[in-house]
Amino acid sequence: MAEKKPVVIKIGGVELTIPPEAKVKDVAAAAGVAIPRLTIDAATCKGCQLCLKGCEAGAISGEKKEPHVIDQDKCVQCGECLARCKTGSVVPA
Ligand code: SF4
Ligand code: SF4
After folding, report:
1. 69 lines ligand 2 (CB under 6 A)
2. The pTM is what?
C-alpha cells in the first residue's frame, strides 16, 4: 500500500496540514480554527464514497457515482470528510 501523506485543507482561508493518523478536529482546534457546517457540492461530487467511509457519525449518504449528501442533524462537524474529498466538493454550508 502507498505510504499515507499529510493532507492540506483550507478552512476560512487558513491552511491546515493534517498528518495521516491525526484527527482534523484536533488539528483545527490546535490552530484555533472552528470547523463550519459543511455541505457537498453536487455539481462536483463524483460519488467516490471516500467521505462516507470516513464519517464516524454516519451523516453522509449517497450511491456510488452519485452526488452524496450530509445530514446536518447527524453531522458533528469533525471535518474528516473535508480532508478525504479529493475533488474539493465538501464546502462550507
Ligand atoms: S464533518 Fe464529520 S460528521 Fe460531519 S459529515 Fe463530515 S465526516 Fe461526517
Ligand atoms: S469524497 Fe468528495 S467526491 Fe467523493 S463522494 Fe464524498 S464529496 Fe463526493
Report:
1. no
2. 0.94
